[in-house]
Amino acid sequence: MFKNMTLPKAYGLFTIGFLLFSITLLMLEIFVGLNTAFIGWCFIILTMGLYATIGIISRTKVLDEYYVAGRKVPGFFNGMATGADWMSAASFISMAGSLWALGYDGLAYIMGWTGGYVLLALLFAPYLRKFGQYTIPDFVGARFGGNKARGVAAVAAIIVSFTYVTAQVTGVGLIMARFVGVPYELGVIIGLSGVLVCSFLGGMKAVTWTQVAQYVILIVAYLVPVTFLSLKLTGFPIPELAYGQALQNITRLETEQKIAKPYIEPYNEVLSNASAIGAVNQINQMTGAKLEVPKAATVPDWKNTPWDFMALTFVLMIGTAGLPHILIRYYTVPSIRESRKSVGWALFFIFLLYFTAPAYAAFSRWEILQNVIGLKIGTVQDGGKDWTTVLNKEGKPLPWVLNFAKTGLLTVSDTNKDGVLQFSEIVINNDLIVLSTPEIAGLPYTIAALVAAGGLAAALSTADGLLVVIASAVAHDFYFRIINPKASAQTRMNLGKAMVVVAAAVAALAAMPRLALIVQMVSWAFSLAAGSFFPIILLGIFWKRANGPGAIAGIIGGLAVTIIYMFGNYTNPAFNVFGISHLSAGLFGAAANFALTIVVSLVTAPPPKEIQDFVDHVRHPQEVDVVGAAAPAE
Q1: Domain ranges across the chain
Q2: Using alpha carbons only, what angle is made at residue 413 by residues 412 and 419, rounded to the nearest 5 degrees?
Q3: pLDDT digits (tens, 9 = 90+) for 460-516
Q4: Which CATH number fits domain 35-59+78-240+303-365+445-623: 3.30.420.10, 3.30.450.40, 3.40.50.150, 1.20.1730.10?
Q5: Interatomic CA distance for residues 218 and 108, integer angstroms
Q6: Phi (first) and psi of residue 509, to 5 degrees
Q7: What pTM was computed for the model?
Q8: d(Cα 164, Cα 506) in Å, to the nearest integer?
Q9: What tens digit of pLDDT does each residue of 285-305 get?
């Protein structure tokens, strides 16, 4: 399978070493009482140090290596790197949390994100690999005849990638704040420093090999705690097969506790602007601004209908197939055949986590309903401040409640004044569910720290790839392709490195207010990708009549419609069509993009023959399996 056996050997030894390291810390905690803060720092230092080491070893001054890893990444490892690139903080930290809160409705994320890879494999991967080059705007520029279309595509790539990377930075801040004990803002800076060491020195080459290691860490960190939780609650160590038992117990406990909103009931959500209100309040608090806070609004009109569920599933699918940082991964493999293998392996590696996420959410909810709800509520003083908390059966405060309350993302209140915790009286931010579950379940702290290391790996792996996309859009697509075509390779690389730093700094600033849940921010990025790139790439490959004016109109119109609907519904849920939320705004953007591209293309001149021949060339990837493909002159 592997031509270069040093890669599997190296990463195999790394996997074994990481498992032994984790088991050693676990044993020291159980039998020696190792300090929990020390355990947290051990995981952070080990993983961040590993990423920095790979980044330094993989540093390069070769442009082809910086942008596309020299096109030498085997399909297996590219699949693993793609899995890490794909399974961001949203997948690791926030997806199971959304399933925990939404129940059935949260399955839209599972089906949409997984289904998107089927579209990617069928429609895009082999064709883009045959095209070659460096970026998605490269393809748009070559296919649609010049720098105007390229420039518009580069702007879209920056908007999509920046929205996505801001969510990853938010995840980094949360993990650092809780498990290292630093303020959220400082945690963002520390985490981003690890990203910069990788992407700054080695570009896509360093990012790729770092992501392979990050996948190992994140998948181990995700599977271990839910396996322990399944064993604790059911006596069976395979959570995916015990999922049905968890759902049965959740339903029973909800009935006993008279919880009005059943976990397994579909289409049970109403439209609300609670997230927008919280975001504006936080911005005002942090900056001293006096932005007008939207009036609280809830729209239940479309409850019990499937339209938003179906729209979100569809948008996540086409958004997946339009994400620039995922699409460019298929430039890094040596051949078209390897690109197909890469997609297959990526699906397998993603499956391991996505197949487990619903079980993770269900076991976490079962644990809370069974062992936390019904305990007494008390008050504890910490740092000169009184905190409302939950007391265990011995009357002592539960440590995890106070620890997570300090992050501002968990609150406990005795609303009915009976001194007993009800389900409605504990509010846990969805982004905390995966991170907090090991502690909630009473598992050793080493397991919780392992989860934090996995969440950090997920956030950093995606942030690495996104920063490379942003930097290449500026240095390659704008500066080299449009402004200064005679720029040397060294100048282009230096500008790319500078833009990595600038993009990271701006993303850190944007992440400070925490505008939304991580999974919401990622969904916005998918909507933006669905409204901008998916229609253009699809038509560019499969419809020769599509031309430059049509592509420009489509991208601009699709982005504009997506952003307008997104902002309107986010702040005022009454602004909606069929109850479709801001998370699915890309549905309307994609429709506008398709319509504008087709109409404008039909009323303007067809593309020249050399571009139509280029489409024929790209459309038949099985005929030639080479490193690159000739593009028409621009």
Answers
A1: 35-59+78-240+303-365+445-623, 374-421
A2: 110
A3: 888 888 888 888 888 888 888 889 988 888 888 888 888 888 888 888 888 776 665
A4: 1.20.1730.10
A5: 22
A6: -65, -40
A7: 0.87
A8: 13
A9: 777 778 888 899 999 988 889
